[in-house]
Design brief:
The protein has about 160 residues and is mainly alpha-helical. It contains seven helices and two strands. The mean pLDDT is about 95.
C-alpha cells in the first residue's frame, strides 16, 4: 500500500491528472521450481498529463506572472473518484491531503521524501532538460509547480 500511496504523492507533486484505473500495474514474478508466484506494484508510468504539459507557453507565462501556479495546481482533476456520483475525479493534491489523514502510515514515507527534496536539485534537474524537450517558460512553470506542490505536501506532515 505504501507504493500506491507514494504514486499518489508523486502525482500531487507533479500535477499528474491522468492517474486512472488503467494507469496502475502489477508485476507477477513466477518461481517455477518453487511453484510460487508473487505480485508487486509495477513502477509508476504515464505521467504525460503533468507539469502543465497541455499549456501553451503564453498561458504558462501568464500564470507565472500573476502568481497563480497554486491556483492552477488546485484546479486540476484526476482520474480517481472519491465519490462515484461526482462528475470529475479528485484533485491529486486534495486526494493526498484527505487520504493521508485517513491512512497516515501509508503516506508518511513518501511525504517525508518530498519534504526532504532540495529545491536546488529540483531546479538543476528541470534546467538540465534539453531546449528541444522543454521551452524556458515550460521549465519555469514545471519548477514553480513542483516547488509549490512541495510546500503544500509538507503541510500535511504538520
Amino acid at each position: 500500500m505504501t507504493e500506491l500511496a507514494g504514486y499518489l504523492v508523486l502525482d500531487a507533486l507533479i500535477g499528474n491528472t491522468d492517474r486512472h484505473h488503467e494507469n496502475w500495474g502489477l508485476v507477477v514474478q513466477v518461481q517455477r521450481e518453487a511453484r510460487k508466484a508473487s505480485l508487486t506494484v509495477a513502477p509508476s508510468y504515464d505521467h504525460a498529463s503533468s507539469l502543465g504539459r497541455e499549456l501553451r507557453d503564453d498561458r504558462r507565462v501568464e500564470l507565472l506572472t500573476a502568481n497563480r501556479v497554486d491556483s492552477y495546481i488546485r484546479k486540476g482533476r484526476g482520474g480517481i473518484f472519491r465519490e462515484s456520483e461526482k462528475r470529475h475525479g479528485e484533485n491529486p493534491l486534495r486526494l493526498v491531503q484527505v487520504a493521508a489523514r485517513t491512512y497516515p502510515s501509508y503516506f508518511r514515507d513518501a511525504l517525508e521524501r518530498v519534504a526532504a527534496l532540495d529545491a536546488n536539485v529540483v531546479v538543476r534537474i528541470v534546467d538540465s532538460l534539453p531546449d528541444e524537450c522543454a521551452s524556458d517558460p515550460a521549465k519555469r512553470f514545471a519548477k514553480a509547480m513542483i516547488l509549490n506542490a512541495r510546500v503544500s505536501l509538507q503541510e500535511i506532515l504538520k
